Amino acid sequence: MLRKAYKFKLKTNSKIEKKLWSYAGHSRFIWNYFWSLNARRLQKRQSIMRYAEMDYWSKILKRSEQYSFLSEAPAHIIQQKLKDLDKAYQDGFDRTQSTKRLPKKRKKHLHSSFRFPDPKQFKIENRRISLPKIGWVSFFKSQNILGTLRNITISYHSGNWYISIQVESQLILPNSANKSDVGIDLGVAKLATLSNGKAYEAKNIYRSLETKLSKLQRRLSRKSKFSKNWFKQKRKIQCLHSHIANARKDHTHKITTEICKNHAKIFVEDLKVLNMSKSAKGTIENPGKNVRTKSGLNKSILDQGWSEFRRQLEYKSSWYGAEVVPINPQYTSQLCSECGHTSKENRQTQAQFVCVSCNFSSNADINAARNILAAGYAVSVCESNHISGRKQKPLGNCEKIPA
Ligand SMILES: [Zn+2]
Fold first, then answer.
1. Tens digits of per-residue pLDDT, 24-52?
2. Are the C-beta atoms of 307 and 273 separated by less than 8 Å?
3. 326-383: pLDDT as tens digits
4. What b-and-e string marks burial along 314-324, b requiring 16 or more CB atoms within 10 Å of the CB?
5. Which residues on adjacent β-strands are paired with residue 287?
6. Exposure of 188 by Cβ count < 10 A (0-12 exposed, 13-18 middle, 19+ buried)?
7. How far is the CA of 71 from the centre of ligand 1 (A)?
8. How far is the CA of 292 from the centre of ligand 1 (A)?
9. Which residues are designated catalytic?
10. Whole-prediction pTM
11. Rounded to the nearest whole angstrom, what is the distance from the C-alpha of residue 335 to the centroid of ligand 1?
């Protein structure tokens, strides 16, 4: 079974928006309420409340006079928020998930969303959806929704309300007979270079909009904090940020779809991107203060989001019946893909690869991508040899490459 989400912009009016803001507010309130209780418990080194306990107390809250407003919102979305909070704590304490942090307090402008977890609660008819306690809402339907409805999430960002519809469908593996395998080299100037010579330019949209962004930020600093004009300016900055994020994601989506559609096995460098950019604190989505002072390379990594590229490849490959295999990128830039000679001198300039042994010359990225493809095949051979019990060493070094 395959899960997929469709996201559309909602067509709202002031009446609907009022309800959306109110329900988003109620779910944010419930999150923050139990988050604070748990924060106090953690401070005292006590164990935190799990979902069942929070759910019990939330029902008591609803019955109290002070918090009776909570029963205005559909009960399911409140319960779902508590489940999300519970999950966020579990992930945060899970040592195997190094990128996850403990949940934080939610803020109005960053976190206004709620989810209807039960498909029985909503109905979709052409370009409109019926939601409990809200009624029919139209949306900009940009593509057909295929599959069984699972849940929907309503969220607000940069001035608009969106609906994200999650569906589940039977995985139909397309015929992979006439598909080739490919090695991919990820880079700074070119986002991705394939072993067949095809290259995808990076879209450094952040760089091009940076001046605009810093101008907006300078104006913000001159306004008195939390004034009407300050909020207006803040909103402008948020819009620009979301424009940058959307453009970047869109660009990566086009590339990853094309790669997954046309290839059977996709070998990519195991870059540990997250670790590389971690030095500048935080995550790709949420870079820290030090990012600006870090070198240009680090920023480019953040810009292009190699990890986003990888993430998209991973989930899309399952739609198209392809397979993503991570490869140890050691020596791929110094190794000659023609004769196998490895030397630092092979890489004379950043762009050009010239082998000092056999004189093979090629674009450096294409050479690296060809090496990744070869290393990928070596890993596959290693694996099949280990399974059949033979100890013969194939191309490359089995031990060096994590299978
Ligand atoms: Zn050579």
1. 999 999 999 999 999 999 999 999 999 99
2. yes
3. 887 777 888 898 888 888 887 767 778 888 889 888 898 899 899 999 988 887 776 6
4. bebbebbbbeb
5. 282
6. middle
7. 72
8. 40
9. 185, 269, 365
10. 0.65
11. 8
